[in-house]
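hey m, so remember when u said the tokens were messed up on ur end? i reran from scratch. heres the input so u can diff it against urs
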Amino acid sequence: MSDAVHAQIQSLVNTHSVVLFMKGTPAMPQCGFSSKAVGILEELGVDVHGVNVLDDPAIRMGIKEFSQWPTIPQLYIKGEFVGGSDIVGQMAENGELHEMLGVKFEPPVAPSITVTDTMKQAIEAAGTGPGEFARFVVSPSFEYQLGIDRQSSGDFIVESNGIKMLVDKGSAKRANGVTLDFQSGQAGGVLIDNPNEPARVRQLDVRQLAEMLKGERALRLIDVRTPAEREQAMLSDRAELFTPAVMAELEKLPKDTLLVFHCHHGGRSQQAAQRFASQGFRKVHNVQGGIDAWSMFVDTNVPRY
């Protein structure tokens, strides 16, 4: 590492209270480990200065020599090297990271999780061996994992509907109040209702939508196309045209209402869905490919145009 690169890194570490050398940016991480570290810091409300090592090969190699640490990301707090994403995660769980950042630490408690009857059947069908349980993980960026695992030190064991489930301390707060459901069928799978999850638009495959409509789930299916387009082809008689009156009605509904938007190919409906997500609606979906995909993969009797 050259003296110039060393000086540049030292300046970054000294200038910013919290510095994360990472792949990508805090707004758009480009690796899972960087995303994990960013998520933890954001959850603590910390203003982090990100340094994208992918933009500068000299910094990417130099930071490893500077810290004597072989991997990325690397976190520095008040000029002190902390570690990579795994260490950051461990410190967040035990309160050490909070102490370094001057953030109040609330020890994690066992979450309350609801397992529906259909989810219970799916877990039982998957099978567990001696000492094995279902494990539910919620990452800082609200990505989910559900599988079968053995208990590790510090895990909570929560029980719902006769199912015992492992939840690690890092996931506990984000998992509190979650309902786990399961939808059968070719396009089915695990359905997660998490009141802690930030509002966002979820993409919905047309085959998943078909299963949802077949199952008579309580949802509002909104068609954002023009009346003329609707005359040419209609996805379902449950689809409502997105008129000003319908929009005003939807905005008054509870924030946990399941809203599904569709258009011709998915562009206009994405914009409409984002409008409602920005208002705090938590179950907002956009139909990928719109009615055109529905015509190709679900009901070929619906005309394409």
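this time it looks ok to me. The radius of gyration is 23 Å. if urs says something different then somethings off w ur setup not the seq
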